[in-house]
Amino acid sequence: MRPVLAPPPGGKVEPREAPTFSVVIAAYQAADTIGDAIGSALAQTLPASDVVVCDDGSTDELERSLAPYADRITFLRQANSGEGAAKNAAVRAARGEFAVFLDADDVFSPERLEALAELAGARPDLDVLTTDAFLEVGGKVVRRCYDEGWTFETNDQRGAILQRNFVFGLAAVRRQTFLEGGGFDKSLRYATDWDLWCRLILDGSRVGLVAEPLARYRLNPTALSAQRAALLRGRCHVLEKAAARPDLDAAERRQVTRALTAERREALLAEAHEALIQKASHARVLAARVAGAPSMPLGTRLKAIVAAVAPGLAARRLKQARALHGVPGPAGVRFPL
After folding, report:
1. What are the pLDDT tens digits along the chain (337 aa)?
2. Euclidean distance between CA atoms 156 and 245, whole angstroms
3. Which residues contact 39 (CB under 8 A, 6 or more apart)?
4. In this structure, is the dihedral angle defined by the CA atoms of residues 113, 115, 117 and 120, taken in order, positive or negative?
5. CB-CB contact of 98 with 19 (8 Å)
6. CATH superfamily, region 4-219
7. Which of 14, 191, 261, 265 is deepest in the core (most CB within 10 A)?
């Protein structure tokens, strides 16, 4: 038996025949990596019903990279509309009962769909399924996605999803549930996965995990560093949407309020750091905002005062700190620069 984590069933659950799975891939400027992704989807011990690739307006040699797989995939093309829109289109075209997301630069282990099917058959009450994964940077595995610092929630998934995204993103979601829930929010550029899981879980879906690393999730530290402030603002937007829901109870409202306060604090700090390092004209203004923010720790506020007075000195210290400690990334990973 594979190790599984999931919330307890709400009642008696009878095992059923395993459902079918479609692998869906949104691709943008992914000619160099998509071959490995598709190859891993087609090499599953439990074959997918179909593999659907949606090209989100790429201008590279993507179609040439797809040519060896042309007769084994469903290929869609759209004008550049964003990752969420591309995934939505791929799910609509898919045939399986579950849609399994695979990013164009990541890969599945051969038995991943088989493991998801076992869990789906044993727990048909679950609408979202995922597995653990290896996080890879520069071709090297740095850790597993889930560990003691980043755990999968089983007891209170509603409360937990209002505080952090505990669902590894290369997940399988029941296709009907996905479509009825509106799919990915196309207006969001960042944290789209978290927004989807948040909406589905708050609407009644539950999530299960096969606690084996059955994918390789490849991280780009340079891109994450450049996008950190925008990503944090995206996370704030997700929590603002959740906080506006009328169906949260008092405890959940407190949870989302605390989480939103923390994310806004981190976003402001990231924006100030980026402005200082880039010597932007508004760096002093952002440093002053950090210094005056009551939610910031005292030490951070004191450093911000120094940054407002001497931004050049603060920028040099930030660069030294990043070189020494790295930049925070997903699931608590820090990336050296």
Report:
1. 799 999 999 888 889 999 999 999 999 999 999 999 999 999 999 999 999 999 999 999 999 999 999 999 999 999 999 999 999 999 999 999 999 999 999 999 999 999 999 999 999 999 999 999 999 988 889 999 999 889 999 999 999 999 999 999 999 999 999 999 999 999 998 899 999 999 999 999 999 999 999 999 988 766 655 688 889 999 999 999 999 999 999 999 999 999 999 999 999 888 888 887 878 888 788 878 888 888 888 888 878 786 777 777 766 776 666 555 555 555 554 443 3
2. 18
3. 69, 107
4. negative
5. yes
6. Spore Coat Polysaccharide Biosynthesis Protein SpsA; Chain A (3.90.550.10)
7. 191
Q: For residue 232, give the nearest of 268, 197, 256, 199 by alpha carbon.
A: 268
Residue in this structure with the two tokens 């095992």, named with its chain if needed: 15
For the chain, which residues make up each domain, given as ranges?
Answer: 4-219, 224-329
- Read off the pTM: 0.89
Nearest-10 crossing angle of helices 283-292, 311-325:
80
Burial readout 188-209 (b: 16 or more C-beta within 10 A, e: otherwise): bbbbbbbbbbbbbbbeebbbbb
